[in-house]
Amino acid sequence: MITGIRHIIFDLGGVLLNIDYNLTEQAFIQAGIHNFPQLYSQLAQTPVFDDFETGRISASEFIEALQDASSVPLSRQQIIDAWNAMLMDFPIRRLQILQQLRIHHDLVLLSNTNEIHEAAFNKILMDSFTIPNIGVFFDKVYLSHRVGMRKPNREIFQQILDDTGFDPAKTLFIDDSPQHIEGAKALGIQTIYLEKGMTIEKDIFLSK
Fold first, then answer.
1. Helix locations, the chain, DSSP H
2. pTM for the whole thing?
3. Pairing of strands 171-175, 190-193
4. Residue of 110, 31, 73 lying closest to 39 (CA atoms)
5. What's residue 68's pLDDT?
6. Which residues are tagged catalytic?
7. Which parts of the chain have pLDDT scores under 70?
8. Which domains does the chain have, with CATH numbers?
């Protein structure tokens, strides 16, 4: 499936890190933000989430916005805990796959994320495997809140190609959101859409 591919761009959530958006939705509803499903979803985001994900607002401003949206008083920690509830675990086989691939491929991480989640998923790695951060598995890391751009906008994919010199025809992008796949395809990057129920260890990089 990866014949001729020299460079691989990985999404994070839903590809390497198990996530469940419903856990965060339930946590916020239980905390008092009863319209949270309308405020946030994987496919359509309100401006506050988009701004947070592209670094235009800080974690404090994001937390204050959710406090204002809540019908009950919520502490900073309550909001952080609810926001991080969606982040689950890194299956060890996926991390092993990254280590194996890096021997013969250039690896890049591209994630739409935010500073609260970055701290949280790195803590999961440290607590589970004493690995300090996700960057140890990659040659370059592009996090939306750090670079000020997000998928599926073609600018972020073009930035990666410009920075690395990758040939898009020899570059593979793996993501679990169809709109992100289309953004990469527009620049000639090879893609794999990880549909619901698929995993990289079961469906792409099979053990020999």
1. 21-31, 36-39, 47-53, 59-69, 76-84, 92-101, 115-129, 144-147, 154-164, 178-185, 200-203
2. 0.93
3. parallel
4. 31
5. 84
6. 11
7. 1-2, 40-45, 207-208
8. 7-18+88-203 (3.40.50.1000), 21-84 (1.10.150.240)
